[in-house]
Design goal:
Blueprint lengths: L2 H8 L7 E3 L14 E6 L5 E7 L2 H31 L2 H10 L6 H19 L9 H13 L4 H20 L26 H10 L2 H13 L3 H5 L6 E3 L2 E4 L2 E2 L6 E2 L10 E4 L2 H13 L19 H15 L9 H12 L4 H8 L4 H8 L6 H11 L2
Antiparallel strand pairs: 1-2, 2-3, 4-5, 5-8, 6-7
Helix pairs in contact: 3-4, 4-6, 7-8, 7-11, 8-10, 8-12, 13-14
């Protein structure tokens, strides 16, 4: 670095950074090589930049960075105040657009919860006025309106996600959920079809319905995931890879629930299910994309097709119990847990985002763990 450059560099305000040339020219202030900068940004990370033709360009850039760092706290405070001044309705809408990991179905569900339970009560309230009292009053308002416990918990969970996002971004100074007791929803006893009922449904159902039933009760797939049945997903003789689902309304491929685009999960593929899928594939003409289940007037099934097919099969089989397609997933979980499969594996195979969901619904299906553990431990004594 030349004497002139060193003199100018030392004239910079402490903390601004420095500029220099990486070349070995004797008179760097006159050589054609560009100046480089070294400084620390607002987060404290060291940065380097190059490409500045003159010393003045380099100093102007460092000055700009320095002022930006000095005013960052002010800008952050202003942004936080702006968030706090927003009404809950617009903030909730902007929050939802930022949830890029949500599937179209999840977006529709959240919108329904907002419109039916949350916005009628809280839409006009400013974000920075939410406190534990406001949240508790909201829960009481749902109780007064005789909102079901399942709907109360869904509304509470959605409100919590939105307000904690605002708290994290500085729009709310204190956590408004500290000490708040959430609505406790205890799921009603689930209806699990018997194996005889499943066989009867398959016997009286269409070829497509049989494949969907096998994938749901044998592999634990959701409805939309079964609609997306594809030969390419049989990645091993005993493994089925779930990579997508068919949106039940739009009948278009969509990413998996609780997964980012491109993510997948794998689940066990029993031999009977594999034979069912391969047998159906041999009986029909499979398109180049490998999809198995096609509708009469659309390339994929939708929920209305499934509901009709299910209703017809139930009627023909003479099944009067209130079983729905989701009951097949309950059968899968029951079958796994009764065979001693760890609930952590069951949660992963079923695509649950949180094992608490699996535990809450299926805990009663697990064998008595204490007695079983006592017998197993005794074998090693």
């Amino acid at each position: 670095m030349s004497q002139e450059t060193r003199t100018m560099a030392t004239s910079l305000v402490r903390g601004m950074g420095s500029f220099f040339k990486n070349c070995r020219c004797t008179r760097q202030n006159r050589c054609p090589h560009p100046y480089a900068l070294r400084y620390r940004d607002a987060s404290g990370r060291q940065r380097e930049e190059t490409g500045y033709t003159t010393q003045q360009d380099a100093m102007d850039r460092l000055t700009s960075v320095y002022h930006e760092k000095r005013h960052t706290p002010e800008r952050q405070a202003a942004a936080q105040r702006e968030i706090g001044r927003q009404r809950f309705g617009p903030y909730a809408a902007s929050w939802l657009t930022r949830q890029r990991h949500y599937t179209p179905g999840s977006v529709r569900t959240v919108n329904q919860v907002l419109k039916s339970q949350i916005l009628p009560v809280l839409e006009s309230r400013r974000v920075n006025t939410f406190t534990t009292t406001v949240v508790e009053d909201f829960i009481m308002s749902m109780e007064e309106r005789s909102v079901g416990l399942a709907a109360q918990q869904n509304a509470f969970d959605t409100l919590k996600k939105i307000l904690l996002d605002a708290h994290r971004r500085g729009g709310i100074s204190t956590d408004p959920f500290v000490g708040v007791i959430s609505p406790e929803y205890i799921p009603r006893k689930i209806a699990i079809p018997t194996l005889d009922e499943i066989h009867a449904l398959k016997e009286h159902g269409s070829d497509e319905l049989r494949v969907v039933i096998d994938l749901m009760h044998g592999c634990g797939l959701r409805n939309g995931e079964a609609y997306a049945a594809n030969l390419e997903r049989l990645v091993a003789d005993d493994v089925y890879r779930v990579t997508e689902q068919i949106d039940g309304r739009t009948r278009q491929p969509a990413r998996l629930k609780h997964r980012k685009p491109g993510e997948f999960r794998e689940c066990p593929l029993p031999p009977t299910v594999r034979e069912s899928v391969l047998g159906y594939a041999q009986a029909v003409a499979i398109g180049a994309n490998g999809y198995l289940i096609r509708g009469q007037r659309s390339p994929h099934w939708g929920h209305s097709t499934m509901q009709y097919q299910w209703w017809m099969a139930r009627k023909k089989a003479g099944i009067t119990r209130k079983l729905n397609p989701y009951s097949l997933r309950h059968f899968f979980a029951s079958n796994c847990l009764s065979k001693g499969v760890p609930i952590t594996d069951v949660a992963e195979w079923m695509g649950h985002s949180n094992i608490n969901m699996t535990f809450k619904i299926y805990r009663h299906l697990m064998p008595a763990s204490v007695g079983r553990a006592a017998r197993l431990l005794n074998e090693g004594l």
